[in-house]
Amino acid sequence: MKGYVQVYTGCGKGKTTASLGLALRAYGANLKIFIGQFCKGKTSSEFKALYKLKDKITVKQYGKGCFIKNKPDKKDMLKAQKGLEEIKKYIASEKYDLVILDEINIALYYKLIPLSEVMEIIDNKPKKTELILTGRKAPLEIIKKADIVTEMKEIKHYYKKGIPARKGIEK
Amino acid sequence: MKGYVQVYTGCGKGKTTASLGLALRAYGANLKIFIGQFCKGKTSSEFKALYKLKDKITVKQYGKGCFIKNKPDKKDMLKAQKGLEEIKKYIASEKYDLVILDEINIALYYKLIPLSEVMEIIDNKPKKTELILTGRKAPLEIIKKADIVTEMKEIKHYYKKGIPARKGIEK
What interface predicted TM-score (ipTM) does this complex get? Predict the structure, then answer.
């Protein structure tokens, strides 16, 4: 089966969530899944659930948490770059049918990792590997190269009413 | 914790997938989850994966499969209406923190179930219950009432190149 490149971007809710759903569906079809989460560093509810499915899903985190309000620092950059190197090896191993690079668009937006290297990953991925890239502000170069691009468009969101992220729903 | 009403609509990929991701995240947070799938009737990969998590996730299907190309018939309608009755009981039991009504917008669009009854479900849900409604063509009344609405906007999709749905990725 040929694998494609999918991008989930935009400001609406559901990008990471959709990639989790993809992982769950792929799990049900006995595929092997690798998830690399950029920027995130805390053990979230999703992490705990994925751990239950660890016979087929491998999850790694390459960040130290949210820097949306602040600017990323040197440590954020080092974690992301180390992650990218690790991801290249995971993909090259050809062990994984589905590879999810969660929040990689944000890591690119903040220049934590070079776009050229991500483009190389896309160009050189094994044919069978389905590659998912999530995060707001996907670069145009990636959108051009991808087979499926969905923009999660925020029509309405209660964040604007000042309600913080809730355990089990957003985090 | 107060539960909200979320809608995932639009023509892009990732609506059902996002709801599956929500279920997985909620599972990781030890919440109890009910998923009612309208229109769908086949054992998909997602169904198999959810079954692995059946200690906290209950899934029911209220359709006999895809009628997107054809029109729905009497049997589709009966299954959807039976489903709606069952869903009311599941929600009223107050056992579930997260209730996903997958493809309910499509069931409404084809008039398989009455909008007034779905509005009643939204109005009368237990306070703690997070209610998710997915499917293209969400009615304006539901969008108005919801707390979060995300439109999955198709920017690019390989369906248009004539590639059918693939096991473990789309089905």
Answer: 0.85
